[in-house]
Specification:
- The structure holds two protein chains of two kinds.
- Chain A is of the alpha+beta class.
- Chain A has ten helices and seven strands.
- Helix content of chain B is 32%, strand content 32%.
- Chain B contains eight helices and 15 strands.
- A five-stranded parallel beta sheet of chain B has the order 2-1-3-4-5, with helices on both faces. Chain B has a five-stranded antiparallel beta sheet with strand order 10-9-8-12-11.
- In chain B, a hairpin with a 2-residue loop joins β6 and β7.
- The chains are: A alpha+beta, B alpha/beta.
């Protein structure tokens, strides 16, 4: 639909190629470093253990002992597997889906075999047939889980596409576009070079808006996009707009959802700078705290201007995309602190390759 | 033909520059002269008091005072300029303008459109204050007082109370009193969130109410008075309004 206005066929084939590649990408292994993924694996495996206990138990009184017997065997294996998958997550993600799938199963099989062998040798007399049975069970369960995560991702991918559309709608604020074009027109005669630069910034900004916004990008790119956006606003608002950046070393390498920061900066200008007669400052801090990326943004607060539309939509959109990308590990908070409006975001720090 | 006197009011310097260029471009078609440029509404009103203009090109979206509020205020001065609004994108306002035949230009502005609007403004009938009142969805932030030809703006946040007297309304601020020609009922309607009626002829600022005092006098109508912060007058509360005022004081 987005490309409906493009008449030439090369563009259409390009679009087709792009969408095929996108479908390819939707099938991927889960991120084993994600808390939500780990929690789901624990839940399913322990659920399976409980189910097995129910089947094996002769009476109600036996369920507990059966369950603990199974769990006693399963839990050490599971924790070693999760640790190894956590460490290998980045490597696995680089493989094609089928290869990654098989590799994960191989890891599960090998670790289950090794761990069970160790456990059997330490404990009772070895029970080799039971051991093979256990390994087969582990492989089946792992395959089932991977398939579950694949289907879940598929189910979410329309949501991601939807989020991208919403991002577009929330992003192209006509007010900004027309005011910027008007400002560029105003300087074309007097300062053609500056006008050129401004149109280039505008083009880059719209290219980013129209890009496939589903893959994570380095924070560096998002920051440079924000700077281009701010250049345009500076042209219009002049000295009234002041911006202070504080960026921790390393924070620029973090992987973040595209269009994470720019809508927030645009909101800050719209709600915090434009309604003010005096000079106003926007503060942006991008820092690292342990294995988390922390983003804080603040702008002057004008309570009487909160009816101006757009704010909640952009925030809801970013929240949704954080959830889609990082599940429960990311959060976004907003609040008013004296005369400033503040937004805080925390998400896992993933370093760009 | 005497050139049309034009005032430009826009908070963005490049937007003003653009209007300047375009006015110059359509000089041959509509002779014009820029009598002033302002970066906000109050500044524009100040300029107008000393430099009369025939037409004002006014951005809608400005800090402090919107362009539409500016248009509402300047109707008080003698021979106000015809107002042409300029806006980048404001669905609500544009619809209201269409309905009420108020002229407007869309940013980016074109020279041909500006020339047509100037011609129309020079010839056409003036839009009345009532129309601008109707077009503006927001309560004003200021009251405009015409004092010996000068237009004074009184921020609503400075007003202690509004009291109807004959055909005028007294606007009381901590410093002084002003007289405006507006109806108390309309003021109550517009600023109901800021003021409460305590008497048939009086509205007081809600946030400044500090307490009540019993009046011992034998005045039949009023037996309680409101005390306002920053004001040592005792304003009588009518029996009719007492229940409502008391409820507000409780909350």
């Amino acid at each position: 639909m987005l490309f409906a206005g493009i008449p030439r066929s090369p563009a259409l084939t390009e679009h087709k190629a792009l969408s095929i590649r996108q479908n390819d990408r939707t099938d991927a292994l889960p991120d084993f470093r994600n808390l939500g993924v780990v929690a789901r694996i624990l839940l399913v495996v322990n659920g399976a253990a409980l189910a097995a206990a129910l089947v094996r138990a002769q009476g109600v009184s036996e369920i507990g002992t059966q369950f603990f017997e199974i769990v006693f065997w399963v839990e050490p294996v599971l924790s070693v597997i999760l640790t190894v998958l956590y460490a290998a997550s980045a490597l696995l993600a680089r493989l094609r889906f089928a290869a990654g799938f098989l590799c994960t199963l191989a890891i599960v099989a090998a670790l289950t075999l090794a761990m069970s062998a160790v456990q059997s040798l330490l404990g009772r007399t070895p029970d080799w047939s039971g051991l093979l049975y256990g390994v087969a069970l582990a492989i089946a369960l792992a395959a089932l889980l991977l398939e579950y995560f694949r289907v879940r991702r598929r189910a979410f991918s329309p949501a991601l596409a939807e989020a991208r559309l919403q991002a577009l709608q929330a992003r192209i604020r006509p007010h900004f576009l027309f005011n910027s074009l008007n400002a560029v027109l105003a300087i074309i005669r007097g300062d053609p070079r500056r006008a050129e630069g401004a149109l280039e910034d505008l083009a880059d900004l719209f290219r980013s808006l129209l890009a496939d916004n589903r893959q994570l990008i380095p924070m560096r790119e998002e920051i440079s996009l924000c700077r281009q956006y701010l250049n345009l606003e500076h042209l219009r608002l002049g000295e009234r707009l002041q911006v202070q950046w504080t960026i921790d070393p390393g924070a620029e390498d973090a992987l973040v959802p595209p269009m994470l920061l720019q809508p927030l900066v645009e909101n800050a200008v719209y709600h915090g700078i434009e309604p003010g007669l005096a000079v106003g400052a926007i503060e942006i801090r991008i820092g690292l705290a342990g294995d988390r990326l922390v983003v804080a943004l603040s702008n002057p607060y004008y309570p009487e201007h909160q009816h101006r539309q757009g704010n909640r939509m952009a925030l809801a959109n970013i929240r949704e995309r954080l959830l889609l990308h990082f599940d429960v590990e990311a959060k976004l908070d907003t609040g008013v602190d004296g005369e400033r409006y503040r937004i805080g975001m925390v998400m896992p720090y993933r370093r760009a390759p | 033909m005497t050139p049309l006197r034009v005032l430009i009011v826009d908070d963005e310097p490049p937007a003003r520059a653009r209007l300047r260029d375009l006015l110059d471009d359509c000089q041959a078609e509509v002779p014009n002269v820029i009598v002033g440029e302002a970066g906000n509404g109050p500044e524009g009103i100040n300029l107008l008091c000393s430099n009369p203009a025939d037409v004002a090109l006014v951005d809608i979206h400005m800090p402090g005072m919107s362009g539409i509020e500016f248009a509402r205020h300047i109707q008080v001065i003698e021979a106000p300029p015809a107002v042409i609004f300029v806006t980048a994108h404001d669905q609500y306002a544009v619809e209201a303008f269409e309905v009420n035949a108020v002229d407007y230009l869309l940013k980016p502005v074109r020279a041909s459109r500006i020339a047509a609007a100037l011609k129309k403004a020079a010839a056409g009938p003036r839009v009345t204050r009532e129309v601008f009142d109707r077009v503006d969805p927001q309560p004003r932030r200021f009251l405009s007082v015409n004092e010996r030809g000068r237009l004074t703006l009184v921020p609503l946040t400075d007003v202690l109370y509004l009291k109807a007297e004959l055909k005028y309304v007294t606007v009381r601020t901590p410093q002084r009193e002003h007289l405006i020609e507006e109806s108390l009922a309309r003021l109550e309607e517009e600023f109901g969130n800021l003021f409460i009626r305590i008497h048939r002829n009086c509205l007081v600022a809600r946030r400044l109410i500090r307490g009540f005092e019993h009046l011992d006098g034998d005045e039949a109508e009023a037996s309680w008075a409101v005390l306002l912060e920053g004001c040592n007058e005792k304003l009588p509360v009518s029996r009719r309004q007492w229940a409502q005022v008391k409820a507000l004081a409780r909350s």
